[in-house]
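Hi W., the adenosine monophosphate complex you wanted:
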Amino acid sequence: MPPIFRLGDTMTGEVRPLTTLDPGHLRFYSCGPTVYNYAHIGNFRTFINSDLVVRTAQALGWRVSYVCNITDVGHLTQDDVADASGDDKMAKALKSKEGEAFVNVWDLAEHYADAFKSDWFRMGLIKPLVWPRATQHMREQITAVEELIEKGHAYQTKDAVYFRINSFSDHGKLSGNTNKDELRTAVRDVVLDPEKEHPSDFALWKKDDKHLMQWYSPWGWGFPGWHIECSVMAMKYLGETLDLHAGGEDLIFPHHESEIAQSECLTGKVFSNHWMHSRFLLVDGEKMSKSKGTFYSVRDLVEDQGIDPMALRLSLMAVPYSKPLNFTMQGLADATKNMERLYECARLSSDALSRPDNAPGVASALERVYDEMLEAMCDDMNTSVAIAKALEGTGVIFRESANLGGASAHAALHFLNRVEALLGIRSIREEATGQGDPQEANAETLMNARMVAKQNKDFAAADRLRLEIEALGFEVRDTPTGPVLRRKLSAPEIQ
Ligand code: AMP
Ligand code: ZN
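Structure:
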């Protein structure tokens, strides 16, 4: 019997079985990035947790329709603390120093959306069914706002169209913010539109004919509020009731609360049957901070510091989604060592394929370890235990390394493949398929020469050697535990 997939549900506050309306088919929406900058490792912690839901469901044999949106308009700087106000994050980014590199705000959005997708692939995340973008679903958003007005759930003022929270008695059911007066106190530092009926009514459409991104609507030129995009895009691709909706913990209120209000008033149906929220990532025990130098994008670590993306992924999974994760360089160094164990296991297992098999117990031992790993993932995605199980499997392989051969070597590689399928941790290099690359030994010699050049502070020689290594189809990553050789990956497909 496969285990039951149990997952925390913010709506009920309980860990309960994740069920699907359509048997064996999970319809899952996860809020994606606002593309005004490179995604940081906190964003990726949340995206990886959604990816792990997809992988666990697939390991149980479910079909998964997974949608992750891209916000490229309408997310304002104060959306998180209050009703929509402040600057549009995209427009603000264009005015910043980094923004000088872009022709216009569309160009900026394109650049960061592409960067996000390539970070996504190098961190080993599964491609969703679709990455819908807010700017490409304007007609649907306008239609939804018109319908909310018709049904009496929204009204127009001189400045905007607002959702009327008093028209939805369930408002606040996700976050527990049900007291309307408390909601009002959550609205801080905001210049209120005097025509608003209730201070906590949130914007569905902002009238603004000066905005850098604007569309013509029944209410004149303007742009949509942040929340409406997720309601319309989730329902367009997945239907009126989702099985699961996810995001980081900061999205519970007001973003997801507002999505529920809009969607349920449009359809009269429950918007999502299960809500999962990832707790935040901290760096050295504190909120990431640019001034303290603890704000890391995936690119900073992978490209500038040469960190193995798989080690980064492993370190971002070290603690289950339901607990805050404290990211440290020590944690990353530990994950790098664990990745080396996995790579070494893959290498020695593939080397053993053509040897006689003297390890008959390996296959069943690894089968048991895999079952326990899947059980851990089904137990509210207990990634700490699942990772420990993956490492326990490497222990089984190392202990029997001298006896591995034939069927047991295959079983070891099969186990590592399943670790990849379930946890997204890739350990099998291409040579494990038996197609060793004769250039690898040359690249290794050059890598060692480069290390010596660096130790001698001959950086010109080190740079030249790096180029020679790249010409052989490899690259060197300087990790905290020393240089590592990697086959250069071809550019991932960008949708
Ligand atoms: P944003 O690009 O700000 O719209 O955020 C994209 C996703 O990352 C959302 O689900 C956020 O909740 C999540 N997120 C933002 N900061 C963090 C963090 N420090 N730790 C974990 N998740 C985060
Ligand atoms: Zn969203």
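The two ends are 38 Å apart (CA to CA).

W.
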